[in-house]
Design brief:
single chain, 248 residues, mainly alpha, 11 helices, 2 strands, 76% helix, elongated
Length: 248
């Protein structure tokens, strides 16, 4: 259920981001832009991507390197998330026993169940909210990236391979890759779980489909960020699984 909750939270966050992006200002971002968000975050994000683009030979490569840097920065949180998730999976039998013991749906029983679950998490050193940390970091990054691209003419009209970064992918290659990498990452995570349920299996297949259709609405720059970050997630998951297997 924790894994399912994380996926639902991710989709909710992405849908919320879609609505947020739709309401974004189209005013060009410059060194004269004011406000903490525009001047210090969006403008500097734009300058940083352009700087990377000049070094690595193109705006697309600038976005790819920018994405990898962000993933490296949040890597400790991702490992903490993975470690916490594995500990939670180990607690699954005990959590199931508590749910069976406190199966009544009255308020007092449900409160006692929450108390016992929190006690179990605390004793095991598990933070049930650890899975939210990377998402909370990445959503503002995606928002800042979108605005940096959309509000900087140099980036908005920039190209990469067949893509115009400020527009959607005309051949749907990036949305397909985003969905594929999402599926592989979800499948690897599910395969490592000692206990599986129909909800988890369903989400493993449904989430990539939803990602594909949502990615169709994003500019190529955002979808490129999405593809790279999901590909990075696949590699990270494989490394974590191999490390766990060797440690066992």
């Amino acid at each position: 259920m924790k894994k399912h909750g994380k996926k639902v939270l991710s989709l909710t966050g992405i849908l919320g981001l879609t609505l947020l992006l739709a309401a974004c200002s189209n005013k060009p971002i410059t060194s004269h832009s004011t406000g903490i968000w525009d001047h210090y975050i969006v403008y500097n994000c734009s300058r940083f991507i352009i700087w990377l683009s000049n070094i690595f030979g193109g705006y697309g490569m600038g976005i790819i390197i920018f994405t990898i840097i962000i993933r490296i920065i949040i890597l400790p949180m991702m490992f903490y998330q993975t470690k916490s998730m594995m500990k939670t999976q180990e607690l699954a039998p005990q959590l199931k026993a508590l749910q069976k013991k406190y199966s009544s749906k009255d308020r007092e029983t449900m409160q006692q169940l929450q108390i016992e679950q929190q006690k179990l998490y605390k004793e095991a050193g598990v933070n049930p909210f650890a899975s939210m940390l990377p998402l909370l970091v990445q959503l503002p990054v995606m928002w800042a990236l979108y605005q940096a691209i959309w509000r900087t003419a140099q980036l908005k009209t920039g190209t990469f391979l067949w893509l115009q970064l400020g527009h959607t992918d005309p051949y749907f290659v990036l949305p397909i890759l985003a969905a594929v990498f999402t599926f592989i990452s979800s499948w690897l995570s599910m395969a490592s779980m000692p206990e599986k349920n129909s909800m988890t299996t369903t989400m493993t297949w449904v989430m990539p489909i939803m990602i594909f259709f949502m990615a169709l609405q994003f500019s190529a720059a955002i979808t490129l960020y999405w593809v790279v970050t999901n590909a990075f997630q696949v590699v990270q998951t494989l490394v974590c699984l191999l490390y766990t297997s060797d440690a066992a």
